[in-house]
Amino acid sequence: MQATIQVKDKSERNTHLKIAPFDVRKRYTKPHRHNKYLELVYFSDAQGAHHVDFKAYPITPPVVFVITQDQVHHWEITTEPKGFVLIIKASFLDFSTDQELAILLRSIFDKPMINLSREENIGTLFSLLEKEYAKGVARNTMVFEGLLKALFASIKEEAEKDGQKVHSKGAQLVALLQERLVNSVAYYAGVLHTSPENLNAICKKEFDKTASLVIAEAIIKEAKRRLCYTDASIARLAYSFEFNDASNFVKYFKRHTGLTPLQYRKTARIP
């Protein structure tokens, strides 16, 4: 067992994004997470399962999988897959000339699997993006970003058709929780330039949960990942989430799961 979760980087240096056909050699992978990038994977044909954290999603094309940088995932594909992989670094949104791209993209952050009804439209957009990418994004940035905007909007629309309510106002908090996990509503309220009371109201409206519970769920999920996939000590986990000491973290974990971290590790160990 390793001390940290394996991190893969399929992005390219000096570029903010990458698009390519799904690599058939990656049909079976080991649990890993990504190096500070979001990945959209589209399948027009494939069978098997996509394992995200502690849940297996059946691959039923046409479908899009959204994989954020904090998630641990792996593929188990039993047939030769057909589709595309779009890798987007956080830096891309910083350099984008169209700010609506960030809004559309963040609206689907929490949608791990989106079943599609309009396969041809979305498949065509992925194909066109690949062709434009091959020419060089800088060659015609407006065209490339226009295609991206159409793709994100189409995926968002499909998520809503699929019965998945798309949130937007809480997307910033979700994004922050992917970057840094701290057991403090006040911390995130400060970063978002609002009050803890207002952040709590936003979470109540969008997630039907208190802000502290939204944060707790993110911390517990990440703690479970590390307990399953690494041999990191409890003290190290407590320090990484900025708890004062390990005992406070153990009490926090047990309050939310009913088990101590060590009990969870023993019962949920993944080979």
Structure, described:
- Helices cover 46% and strands 18% of the residues.
- The protein contains eleven helices and ten strands.
- A five-stranded antiparallel beta sheet has the order 2-9-4-7-10.
- The longest helix has 21 residues, at 141-161.
Helix count, DSSP H or I runs of 4 or more residues: 11
Largest sheet: 5 strands, antiparallel
Low-confidence stretches: none
Number of strands: 10
The helix-and-strand class reads alpha+beta
Average of pLDDT: 85
H and E string: EEEEEEEEEHHEHHHHHHHHH
Strand content: 15-25%
Question: Which quaternary structure do these chains form?
Answer: single chain
Query: What gross morphology would you assign?
Result: globular
Major beta sheet, strand line-up: 2-9-4-7-10
| Beginning-to-end CA distance, first to last residue | 9 Å
**For the CA atoms, what is the radius of gyration?**
19 Å
Helix content class: 40-55%
List the SSEs and their pairings:
Blueprint: E1 7-8, E2 17-21, E3 33-34, E4 37-45, E5 48-52, E6 55-58, E7 63-67, E8 73-77, E9 82-89, H1 90-95, H2 100-106, E10 113-115, H3 119-135, H4 141-161, H5 171-179, H6 185-191, H7 196-207, H8 211-229, H9 234-240, H10 246-257, H11 261-268
Parallel strand pairs: 1-3
Antiparallel strand pairs: 2-9, 4-7, 4-9, 5-6, 5-8, 7-10
Helix pairs in contact: 2-4, 3-4, 6-7, 8-11, 9-10
